[in-house]
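<instruction>
Derive structure tokens from the sequence

<record> Sequence and structure tokens follow
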Amino acid sequence: MRSINSARILAKRRKEKLLVIWFVNPELGCPFERIFMPTDEFRVINIHSKWNLRKMFYQLSAMAFGSFADNQTIRRYKGEGQLDETFEKSLKKLTYIATEEHFYECHDYAPFVPAAEIADKIRQKQAKLGPHAVGVHIRRTDNKPAIGKSSTDAFCKSMEEALSQDPQTMFYLATDDLSEEKLLREKFPGKIISNEERDLSRNSIAGIQDAMLDLFCLASTTKIIGSFFSSFTDIAADMHQIPKIIAGE
């Protein structure tokens, strides 16, 4: 989402149209339209292979006649959160960018409207949270920096502080570790709301839809207690510019 937002800014600065090539792969196993409504801000094509002929045509054409930028290039030229002006001006009419990096600051997530098939589920969870909700995002699994920095004890301490300030606080919990959820439900009985029937797989439509449900529910809280070095935490807070604290910092 942040990469697309960055590309939106670049396209607007260049007064050009944006085409998003959405790669459905084991890390993101869901077509764009199964999680988001169509938007006029950009056009999307879904591909299922890096050897997709249309994608290869655009990429090779940019390499031969235009400008091509990958992760390494974007990291080299994005400087203080945005592309270097000289580099930006050097980009040719046909520009192909292949990156998960964000290279402009953009806090406008209006184009990302949840698809109808998950929007109702999001509203149902939000209705249970009430006005005193705090989001809790605990990232485990493969994120070693988050595991090392944002311990379970650190999350519990921050949650206890939130309850001491407002005993009516409810927590929306998003985590990829079911044992963490079990522990927090025991420690904070009646205070935890989550998507209990979630699919934790990235390589499935249901798994990505459940991740989006978590993201939008976290973004609807008043504050987020998040994980260190987690873009999921960052985006959830950024969507509506709500305060966040990182557990363990």
Notes: The longest strand covers residues 133-138.
